[in-house]
Design goal:
Number of helices: 16
Bound molecules: 6-deoxy-beta-L-fructofuranose, manganese (II) ion
């Protein structure tokens, strides 16, 4: 299914006049503050977020999974769905594949389809947290950290295979997340597990093409519930440094213990030139993989404030990989992803409104109250007209959710695909 341009314009029609009034008012008040509105809109349009190929169907937990019907049942349909989201939002111009869930059958056909939808291939993800049918070794007790050399070797070979698959698609980075760890005290020797992991990552690193990067994702717990080998940013940072200049840390917002100061972690990794990218989502308790900005929107804003500062002051840090990593238990997956993209754009736009110079001055004067006033003046600005204009000027929808519903996309997908299709992934 494809959404035609004229259908989006039809959906925009009724909202055009009120949009114009809002954007005129906001542009006027921002320009008076010395803000370059066109520059911000260009930055929003250039900010493309990769959609996780494993989150285009219903997620689920061990307690159950409730389908939404019309789910994509192969990689082609997954890329079509990313195309649907991108045509409405104009900010989802990339897909992040998970291997083996998404091994292309016909590389040229897949590349042609993605290209036709203006979709690029972002990081490819390896999977050594599940055993594959007919696999010689099991990852039950770990993969790159496993006590058994032949298990580690199998996991290393899998990651090298994933790099080859990504290279054929034009991807430029490998994301490594390990479930490796233990569920009980005494089960693992922490030092042996970490040393094995470091040596294994170095073997994978040797297989990286020159212009590739390796993103090392950390997580404190789950599926192991006593220890995780790559448990926090410090361990990921240490391993990235041990591997070399093409290895970086990947920050999944849901992979932090309660009340962690993620914006401080982001600023430290950028200062050290070791921040590689993000898995955006939100959470109340654990790795809940909820809609971005649905629980802690101010925390997301504070993270983007550090990102904007870092992008202006840390040339030592490379361009970042922006990706969503979510799972949908009760929302239509496409609507959930559209809401996440909107929250990311909103946090970025508000962070771009922070008067960084005034903030620096207030910090140097220890004017604590002024510092908060400067931050919250930006956060309290309703930037939605900017996001809408950024979309509209590129042929997108003023309100993507409204357009998605008024164009009856989900029911069209069900008519096309039937009710029993199930997407591979989590
Ligand atoms: C682990 C994780 C990782 C993916 C998986 C789908 O929790 O965040 O990024 O491989 O989710
Ligand atoms: Mn993740």
């Amino acid at each position: 299914m494809k959404i035609e341009q004229n259908h989006i314009q039809d959906a925009n029609k009724k909202a055009l006049q009120s949009h114009q009034e809002h954007i005129d008012f906001l542009s006027h008040s921002l320009t008076r503050k010395g803000v370059d509105v066109d520059k911000i809109i260009k930055k929003l349009q250039d900010f493309q977020v990769a959609i996780p190929s494993w989150a285009l169907g219903a997620g689920g937990t061990r307690f159950g999974r409730f389908s939404f019907y019309g789910e994509p049942s192969n990689l082609e349909q997954k890329i079509e769905d990313v195309g649907l989201i991108h045509s409405l939002t104009q900010t989802a111009g990339a897909v992040s594949l998970h291997i083996p869930w998404d091994i292309p059958q016909d590389y040229n056909a897949i590349k042609e389809l993605a290209n036709g939808l203006d979709i690029k291939f972002d990081a490819v993800n390896s999977n050594t947290f599940q055993d594959q049918k007919n696999a010689k070794e099991s990852y039950k007790y770990g993969s790159l950290s496993n006590i058994s050399k032949s298990v580690r070797e199998q996991a290393i070979q899998h990651n090298l295979e994933v790099i080859k698959i990504g290279d054929k698609l034009g991807s430029k980075s490998l994301t490594v997340w390990l479930a490796d760890g233990s569920c009980f005290p005494g089960q693992n020797n922490f030092q042996t597990a970490l040393q094995n992991t470091e040596n294994s990552l170095k073997e994978i690193y040797k297989g990286l093409p020159t212009d590739w990067s390796m993103l090392i994702e950390y997580k404190p717990y789950e599926p192991n519930f006593y220890s995780t080998v790559i448990q926090d940013w410090g361990t990921s940072f240490m391993l990235a440094n041990a591997c070399g200049e093409k290895a970086f840390s990947l920050v999944d917002l849901g992979h932090h213990l309660p009340n962690s100061n993620i914006e401080q972690i982001v600023s430290i990794l950028m200062l050290k030139g070791k921040l590689g990218g993000f898995h955006f989502n939100d959470s109340k308790y654990g790795d809940d993989d909820l809609t971005v900005g649905s629980i802690k929107p101010y925390a997301l804003f504070l993270i983007f404030n550090e990102l904007v500062y870092g992008m202006q002051n840390n040339p030592q840090n490379p361009d970042l990989a922006w990706m969503i990593d979510a799972s949908h238990n009760v929302k239509d997956p496409l609507e959930d992803l559209i809401q996440s993209l909107d929250a990311i754009q909103e946090a970025y736009a508000k962070a771009l409104l922070v008067d960084q110079n005034a903030l620096k001055t207030a910090q140097q004067e220890n004017d604590v109250v002024k510092c908060q006033e400067i931050l919250q003046d930006a956060y309290r600005t309703d930037v939605r007209p900017l996001l809408a204009k950024a979309r509209l000027d590129k042929g997108g929808a003023l309100s993507p959710i409204h357009a998605y519903r008024s164009l009856d996309v989900r029911n069209q997908l069900i008519r096309e695909r039937g009710k029993d299709t199930k997407a591979t992934g989590l």
